[in-house]
Structure formats: C-alpha cells, structure tokens
Amino acid sequence: MIALREQIEKDLIDTIEGEFRMTVELTSPDGEKQTMSKNNPTEKLYGYSRYSSLSLNPETGEMIIVNKPVVILRITSLNRVPVSGERWFIKFATSPVAGSPLQSFVFTPDRAIEHGQDIGFIKIYPQRIENDGGPEPVS
Amino acid sequence: MMMYRTVKNAIVTLLDDNAFGHYRVIGRQRQSRASDEIKDSDRTVQVYYSDGSFPKNAGRMIGTKSHDLTIDIDLAASASAQGDLSILDSDLATPIQKAAAIAAIKEASENADEKIDELIDYVYNILMDARNAGLGLDNGEISSRWIDRIQKDTLLERGDLIVKTANMKYTCRVQETVGGSIGFEPSTVIFDSETPVDGASSTGITVENDNL
C-alpha cells in the first residue's frame, strides 16, 4: 500500500503540474533565478495559476473589483521554498492561451490573508510590479 | 431643484475643473470600479449627498427652510509595486544585482498610501480655498462650508493591486425653497389690471385663471 505522503505527491503532479500547468519563473531574494524543476532538471518549472478571479472589497464598504492572481507550486519542485518576510520576484502568464507572455509580479509569503503552505504545495498571492528603472528587456 | 443637488453639482464641477489630470471625478455614489480602472486614471473622486438636517429653530414655517447638508466625497487610489525591471527581467544581470533590485522594490502599500495622501491634499485645498467658498454659486447661496472629517480606510490587501480609499465630509448650510408637488403644476394666475370700460367693477381689477 502506498504511503499517504507519496499519494499526495502523485496527486500534486496531476493537479499542479499536469494538463493545466503553466510556466513559472522564480527569483529568490538572493537573486537566484529558477526556471527548471528541481524534481526533473530537464523540465521547466510549472505551477497552477489563476488570474481572473474577481471579488468585491468587504473591508471598506467601497465596491471595488480586484483581480486576484494565485499561483500554486509543488514544494518539491522548488530549489528554495519562500518563507515569511522574504520578498520574491515571480513571472507567469496571466492568460492560459499558449504563447502568452510572462508578466512580472512580486510576493511576500506572509503578506496575504490566506498565506498558504499546505501539505506539499505553496500558495502564492503575487502583486503587480511596475518598472521604475531603465528600459525593460524584451522577453 | 433643491439646493443640495445644486451644491453637489457645483462640487463636482469645481473638482473637475481643477483636476488637471491628477484624478477623475464621478458624480455619483458607489459605482463598482475595477482597480485597473482606478489605476489607469490614477485616482478617482466620488461626490454624493449623504445626509441632511433641517433645524427647526433656524427655519420658518413658511418661506425658505434652512438645510444643513453633508456631501460625502469618496477618494480611491490604487497602486502596484515598483522596481527596476531592467535588472529583474534581465538574463545578463548577476544574482547580486538582482538581489539588490529585489531589496530595493518599493511596496505597493507604500505607493498607495502616498497616492491617497496626495489626493486628500488636492481635494482639501481646492474645496477650502477661500476663492471657492461659494462653490461658484451666487453670493449667499451657501454658508458655513467646512470639511468636518477625513477618514482613511484600511488597505485592500489581496489582489494584484493595492487599493486604498478615504472619505471626506463636506458640510454647509443652504436655504431650500419648497416648490410644491412634482407633476401637479398649479394653474397660472393672470392679473388683468385693465380698468373695465363698463364701470361694473368697483376695484378696477379682474383676476382670471387661464388653465380652468
């Protein structure tokens, strides 16, 4: 009989890195960029991302609709797991259409209300970043 | 039209005329807005009548009625983080350069807070400018204008943009004239002061109603 954690890992491969996978690029606070999976260095780093989830703001009474991007990554695929207080740079496509360009975001794991590190996966709530430096390189 | 509507329209016009691209004025309450929409136009200002009281000792049973009114002014700004993408996105930059760029990122919450503070500054100064005391209306139409309170709300933490809102309460006193029920226009009264030639009327004046 397969151990529960092994079963979870298999499920995560299907749900996060399976048919709905999307390419993700992570840059750690040390400046180290990860584009390939730690589990399989010949494969890109994949995750599950959702962008067009809309909700109203219940905090202020102000009716404001906000896009809420969420990225889910398998922990064993990461070279380094983001922890509280760290600021990371992440790129992923905000559209599931093939060939969509990767967009730039930043995140800090404990900044989100639902900061999530569950069994075997980490949930990231990135925020958009704008350029205030030189010209952006063409990707 | 009651005066509070005139005052609201005057504030919308005044803020709009003085926006100079710093913000956009919406003359109504609580329309759903996307954070992207706020971001593209930088900041938005919503103006709407929210409260009014009619002090009995300051009013009259007939004639105009004193109206102490409150106009709510909702301010909203949204912001993203800011960083040097020429380094962060570059394949040529070293890890040390990227680490420095990540450390230097200005957080979205800081940007949003600065933006809403600027917006409060703009709107307060326009409304409280002595030249705008009358909101461009005729002399004496409004009195005791004041901004009673400014309230900044909490940040909206989730989402790809940070949204910060604030509220301002503008109060003043106006005189309302009661015009009667809408849709029931009273009959027009005509005073005919021509002296009758037949001499039958002792006053020399007849009154007739042309709507009857």
Strand content of chain A: 35-45%
How would a crystallographer describe the biggest sheet of chain B?
Answer: 5 strands, mixed
CATH class of chain B: Alpha Beta
Mean pLDDT of chain A: 80
Beta strand count of chain B: 9
**What is the helix/strand order of chain A?**
HEEEEEEEEEEE
- The number of helical runs of chain A is 1
Low-confidence stretches of chain B: none
Which class best fits the helix and strand makeup of chain B?
A: alpha+beta
* Approximate shape of chain A: globular
Give the count of structural domains of chain B: 1
User: Care to count the β-strands of chain A?
Assistant: 11
Lateral arrangement of strands in the main beta sheet of chain B: 1-3-4-7-6
> What average pLDDT do the residues of chain B reach?
81
Layout: helices, strands, pairs:
The complex is a heterodimer of chains A (139) and B (212).
Chain A: H1 4-16, E1 22-27, E2 33-34, E3 46-50, E4 54-56, E5 64-67, E6 70-74, E7 88-93, E8 102-107, E9 116-118, E10 121-124, E11 127-131
Antiparallel strand pairs in A: 1-2, 1-3, 1-7, 3-6, 4-5, 6-10, 7-8, 8-11, 9-10
Chain B: H1 3-17, E1 24-26, E2 33-34, H2 35-40, E3 43-53, E4 65-79, E5 81-83, H3 85-88, H4 95-103, H5 108-128, E6 142-152, E7 162-176, E8 189-192, E9 206-209
Parallel strand pairs in B: 1-3
Antiparallel strand pairs in B: 3-4, 4-7, 6-7, 8-9
Describe this structure in words.
The complex is a heterodimer of chains A (139) and B (212). Chain A has one domain (4-128). Chain A contains one helix and eleven strands. The mean pLDDT of chain A is 80. In chain A, a hairpin with a 7-residue loop joins strand 4 and strand 5 (64-67). In chain A, the strands form two sheets. In chain A, strands 1, 2, 3, 6, 7, 8, 9, 10 and 11 form a nine-stranded antiparallel beta sheet that branches. Chain A has one helix at 4-16; strands at residues 22-27, 33-34, 46-50, 54-56, 64-67, 70-74, 88-93, 102-107, 116-118, 121-124, 127-131. In chain A, 9% of the residues lie in helices and 35% in strands. Chain B is an alpha+beta fold. Helix content of chain B is 26%, strand content 32%. In chain B, strands 1-3-4-7-6 form a five-stranded mixed beta sheet. A two-stranded antiparallel ribbon of chain B has the order 8-9. The chains are: A mainly beta (139), B alpha+beta (212).
